[in-house]
Queue: 2 jobs
Job 1
Amino acid sequence: MSTAETAETTPVLITTTGPDKPGVSSVLFAALTSQGVEVVDIEQVVIRGQLVLGVLVAVESDPEGLQEVVEQAMASVSMHVDVRIGSAIGTDPFAPDRRGSTHVLVLLGRPVTARAFTQVARRLAEVGANIDSIRSIADYPVTGLEVYVSVAADTPEADSELRSMLADVAARGGLDVSIERAGLARRAKRLVVFDVDSTLIQGEVIEMLAAHAGVEPQVREITEAAMRGELNFTQSLERRVELLAGLDESVLDEVADQIELTPGARTTIRTLKRLGFSCGVVSGGFTRIIDRLVNDLGLDFAVANDLEVADGTLTGKVQGQVVDRAGKAATLRRYADEYGIPIGQCVAVGDGANDIDMLTTAGMGIAFNAKPALREVADAALSYPYLDAVLFMLGVTRAEIEAADEADGLPLVRP
């Protein structure tokens, strides 16, 4: 049994605040050492150069003497200190907190306003959720906060209520919000699959090909019909590809040269690879163009459609089985099995209705600037055009990303 667990000890909570500088902790702990106390708990945070250091100790005798020693020590380094003894701390301060947080929220905004955060905090309180801790995870290109919360009645019903409430707050407050269960599973993700068009890259490849063929308006009309539910993906793809018949195959390379990555795409893939993730793309687009991305970004795999070519021109047909909505989900499962990764440890990122099955199959589905139908079923929805926000949703901080880039000799890129 430790000293802190005996009835003879008195709890003392010491909170030190002031400018962060070398020597503060050593002075405080030298004072504590001189009094022979036992450290029960400790926590420290630095906010823009201001230090908050809290230490809970157990004292066998003369807690008032300890208070005097600590106050003198902290005055010597120009720090403010608050000392609370015994019942002034609260009930049962030595009781261990083994439950921990039940959920982790990530809030992204540009910026995160005080009004928006107030709405989040108020709604959390309404469902009986307590905010345990908050940390900043990003200041560029969006502001990101990671919020750990505890729900008193941790039931499936409470979980659903929490998700619904936060979705409403996000829509009203201009925030991107994700929510996951806290625990090891959150940090165990190992495979990320991206859609390509309007996700990993900007724009739609088939529309770029249609522009070369002079049929862009017709292609867009078919796309809109599919979005209205009048055509399924396979039907819409086949009709659009028919309009490309006779196009010289060299246009495929021209369009591949014109591809622009979504801002943050390189950073996202580079960081995920550093963390040991397997990364790939599953697309309703075309292999010949996507193969460039595989080589450029160092992706582990890519699955897409093959355009039929005869005598140097497009025939207007797709070879083999079309990668459709169901095919995307099946591909995710196939590569999860191939890499030996449980599906719950997989992440899928996409923007359209064609990605619904893939996102709902993955352990975490992220809708990126997505259509309403996809946002409704996703675990997280990103509305800002920066793909590296995916990293923040996974708990990676901007500081960690930039430190890793600096270690590899890469320049810091900020406007």
Note: Residues 361 and 406 are 36 Å apart (CA to CA).
Job 2
Amino acid sequence: MLHPELLTVEDPADPRLADYVSLTDVALRSRHEPAKGLYIAESSTVLARALAAGHRPRSVLAAPRWVPEVERMLADAPGAADAAVPVYVAAEPVLEAITGFHVHRGALAAMHRPPLPTVDDVVAGARRVAVLEDIVDHTNVGAAFRSAAALGVDAVLVTPRCADPLYRRSVRVSMGTVFQVPWTRVDPWPDGVAALRTAGFVTAALALDDSAISLDELAADPPDRLAMVLGAEGDGLKARTVAACDLVVRIPMAGGVDSLNVAAAAAVAFWATRVGRPA
């Protein structure tokens, strides 16, 4: 089990709190890149899901009223090593001065990033896979993961230029489901389409294209193993990606609307093609 080491802090400039200082997205991009091996888990819900997935905290920052819950979560962490975890306890005004925003979700934790698995390991046994190509908005990445978890997608692959699923905003919007759904980066891309085909997947590009079939047609007779590829906001999928995929699929639209936000499109596609959906 993990043992919380409670440490009261009153000075926002305390050097021990460097991981938490001014947590804007820009700061996180520069200070918490994957190479450094850290990400920030925000809220007690997200921290609980990270711990349940076996991720290890480097430290926790919390207001006094959240300390009992943090202690319980650390003690209950499955498979955790018998080690001490610094829990920095600070009053609400001090927390806001440290982080740059009002901390009202329970706790923040600086977490060690686990090593990314291989694509083969992630898709082994999967029947539904989502591929996020160059989606740069962290909110949309988090929302896509949440839909994937809720609607039976077994794994998510993100391309090299896609936003990091473990950035604070992505994790928060996903409600911690980035820890539930197996994922990794697929590189190179779109060469990875061929690897998915070799693994037995039919690849479907969601795009506006003259050759596209309706999502209704795909859902009426879905393949046993399906990888759905969704593209970036605005530009959509690259032409090379669309050409590499087995199918091009569009979501039927009404009201003069030609497309949906990528997170909304993902939810619709995941629901329509979910395993076990009645024909």
Note: The longest helix spans residues 138-150.
